[in-house]
Amino acid sequence: MTFGKGCHLHLIDGSAFIFRAFHALPPLTRKSDGLPIGAVSGFCNMLQKYVEDASGPDAPTHVAVIFDKGSHTFRNDMYDLYKANREEMPEALRPQMPLTRRATEAFNIACKELEGYEADDIIATLSVQARELGGRVTIISSDKDLMQLVGGGVEMLDAMKNRRIDVDGVREKFGVGPERVVDVQALAGDSVDNVPGAPGIGIKTAALLINEFGDLETLLDRAEEIKQPKRRQTLIEKRDQIELSKKLVQLDTNTPLDFTLDDLEVKEPDPDVLLPFLAEMEFRTLSKRIADKLGAEAPVIADTPVQAAGDDPAPEAVPFDASAYECVRDLETLEKWVAAIRDRGVVAVDTETTGLDEMTVDLVGISLSTAAGKACYIPLTHKTGASDDLFGGATLVEGQIPLDDALACLKPVLEDDAILKIGQNMKYDAKIFARYGVKVAPIDDTMLLSYALHAGLHGHGMDTLSERYLGHEPIPIKPLLGSGKSAITFDFVPIEEASAYAAEDADITWRLWETFKPQLHREKVTTVYETLERPMVPVLAEMEMAGVKVDREVLSRMSNAFAQKMAGLEAEIHELAGETFNVGSPKQLGEILFDKMSLPGGKRGKTGAYATGADVLEDLAAEGHDLPARVLDWRQLSKLKSTYTDALQDHINPETGRVHTSYIISGAATGRLASTDPNLQNIPVRSEEGRRIREAFVADEGKLLLSLDYSQIELRILAHMADLPAMKQAFAEGQDIHAATASEMFNVPLDQMTPEIRRQAKAINFGVIYGISGFGLARNLRIPRAEAQGFIDSYFERFPGIKDYMEETKAFAKEHGFVRTLFGRRVHTPEINAKGPRAGFAYRAAINAPIQGTAADIIRRAMIRMPAAIADLPAKMLLQVHDELIFEVDENAVDTVTARAREVMEGAADPAVHLNVKLVADAGQGRNWAEAH
DNA sequence: CTAGAGCGCTCG
DNA sequence: GTACGAGCGCTCTAGC
Predict the structure, then answer these.
(1) How far apart are CA A930 and CA A68, in angstroms?
(2) pLDDT in tens, A492-516
């Protein structure tokens, strides 16, 4: 059939399909030989789904899958940095690229690519040709670069979200019509493709400008007329760069194709070609399904696994469907769910609450899921009426199971040892349930599964995971709750909407569990998950619920004292400046220092503002300038007041009189915890004035605070891992490690050590842990770079194991894309093979991660064993600060607890790892944290 | 008013 | 252009 009026051309962006498939699926391999095949599998499934969906009245008459070919295109000739910061193709994906071409042909769909051109250019050319012949075009892609083609019978279809994008859709995305999209892109640039654009101008501003001036050329010609000085300057100065950007984003509609639209006519797949291909790939489920469709016999695929048995197949994709969720509004229905859970032995659980602070919020509803697509929501305390009316304006919505009845019904399964409860960030839900008298156990946590598998690759929030691994964008909570002043709490969300949202969360959690759990074995992180991640949940939940007592009076007094001092300093600063300004504004301060007073060294950062960091001000103060010296004092007080004495008071729980932080288990890529709301891991200690904040952290009456901290744990780990005999011996002899290092490096006997030499050695020791560089050390010690490099060279000479460790670690990271701690924790370093400064960052992070991560593993092991070790004593573990644990202990039991805790901490590496350096924990005690430290 | 970016500072 | 890993408060700007 000749292409013409009435024809409908579908153009599929093949690369997008492949990458989507690759990232959405676990790393599947072909059973017979282990060839990575996940992307091909996903690609075939997507093609199959496409073919099924594409039938019907709006079916295409012509279709092609378009691929990129080669990494060098004509755009690189215009701009050699085009797509320069693209990550390299993952190793597992490379061999799959040709297979996806074969797959396309096996489905009997035209498969097109052209050396030196991107798929987008071919798509552009074909779209224009089809339009000129009076046909319609649907581009199956979500790539915004293709939006310039929309209009005049050309539309886009985002296959993942199943959303059509027409001219209005483009307008929504870019603020201009398709014909002006390239103008907006030329201004806004694109960090993914490394299109420079105009710095400081994003899509919103670009659209505004284009709409005002009509098009890019007019805008650039009349740039003088722009009112905002910064924009005007940017557009005038960066004109060449903007014009180049336009050429980069403008698609080529005249690519030299060696085929015509007529060649793309839709053809039925040939079973004799397609089925053998699927058999070769060993896609059992898919070949069966397609064989049924084509009315042919499914090919027999031999089952010759090379991998361990118990290797689960990828979960079959069940589409997300909110209408399939059940809203449970009576006890009989809930009992049916409970029976189903008992039958299944496992359930995904999620709670909905009135806020985010587990210690104060109320339970609003519970959702459950027992299979992909099968989920329910149990509304419990949804209300209606005025949410701010404290006098009964809000009333409970009818048709909800009474809270106590529902909990009584669920409690037996939630506490049943034989039933696994899955959650996403289960610590949150477990704490909520605990407050309602339900002790949830045993558990799995999809957030922690992802963390064990993917630390360093991406975040582990549900939205990220769902989009990445399920290809599904969860219902956002924003539209339900609103924002700002008008925001409501979840109990005022209508049950219908709440139900769809909440049940979906449980459904997603279930599917993530199905996706991740089988991968633990394959990726060899089962032990990490089971001994370092999951057991942290109950331990941290206990610590967080215990909280630490904070004396409001102490903070309040300090706050007043700080305020007075600050007022005095502020007056002095204004006096010295000769005008009043906001001392807290780095921008205004910079202008005073470097413009008005013309002090030396005014360096501007990337936003054009002067840098006024402590290092800059210290240099100026050292030259005898009073104003920067006063500002430094003011800043210190300001920090202490706002972040600590003031903000901390707001975190005192009125019921407990204590501060309950929240630890994020998957917060740091290295295995460290992070503390939030409030962060109790950065309470001041280094300055005398700051340290006094710790006096406000107190023990309850009759008790003391006890602190144990690992002495030099990271250097000890380094000495072990890099095998540094001199350092190991110094530790064995209990020497001052920095002095010993200095002695070794500078040939100074210990009894002649000076503080200055020791200080330098200390800086170098830390530098090594951080992935040392001459530049970094020079800046830290404020010495010339060459001198710093000399220090490093002699360090490497005296401790040759260091160099080997660094080289081996780097090589391992480059080969595998991750590094490991002594306990097997993986920390991914995806940028290690990048180009430019990013590689440097990745390299230093790779050096540091095994050291910092091993220390994190060790204290986690100690924390997990601690509750049992002190169970019979009147003591509670309250806080962790990376290498320190803080307890609250009855006065008369302090010595016993110290001994027990020390034993656990010092033996925490055993028996999994035998360190050839001993671990030492120092202890301190007192009425408050300042005394105990 | 609200959201987000950037800066600066706190800790191990 | 750089030391590694985090969280949070303030200012400033853009946009509703």
Answers:
(1) 62
(2) 999 999 999 999 999 999 999 999 9
Q: Are A511 and A315 in contact (CB under 8 A)?
A: yes
For residues A241, A243, A248 and A249, what is the CA-based torsion angle, rounded to 10 degrees?
Answer: 120
- What are chain A's domains? 8-170+252-264 (3.40.50.1010), 327-547 (3.30.420.10), 549-659 (1.20.1060.10)
Our measurement of CA A649 to C1' C9, in angstroms, reads 14
CA dist A203 and A184 (Å) reads 6
The two tokens of residue A928 are 């408050």
CA closest to C1' of B8 belongs to A613
Average pLDDT, chain A: 92
C13 C1': nearest CA residue? A200
Higher local confidence (pLDDT), A741 or A115 = A741
The CA-based angle A422-A425-A428, given to 5 degrees, is: 105
Amino acid at A918: K
> Residue A90 class from Cβ within 10 Å (0-12 exposed, 13-18 middle, 19+ buried)?
middle
Q: Residue A219 CA to chain centroid, in angstroms?
A: 39
pTM: 0.71
First to last CA, chain A: 83
Does A588 have pLDDT greater than 80? yes
Which tokens go with A723? 């095998």
For residue A636, how far is the Cα from the chain centroid?
31
User: Within a 13 Å sphere around the CA of A240, how many CA atoms are in the beta-carbon half?
Assistant: 3
Which carries the bigger pLDDT value, residue A264 or residue A79? Answer: A264
Distance CA A466, CA A510 (A): 11
Closest CA to B5 C1' — which residue?
A607
Q: Å between A132 CA and B8 C1'?
A: 58
ω before A269 within 30° of 0 (cis)? no
Cβ atoms of residues A460 and A503 within 8 Å:
no
Burial of A594 (0-12, 13-18, 19+ CB in 10 A): buried
Q: How far is the CA of A605 from the C1' of B10 (A)?
A: 22
The whole-number pLDDT of residue A392 equals: 60
Strands A658-659, A662-664: pairing is unpaired
Burial of residue A339, with CB atoms counted within 10 A of its CB: 0-12 exposed, 13-18 middle, 19 or more buried: exposed
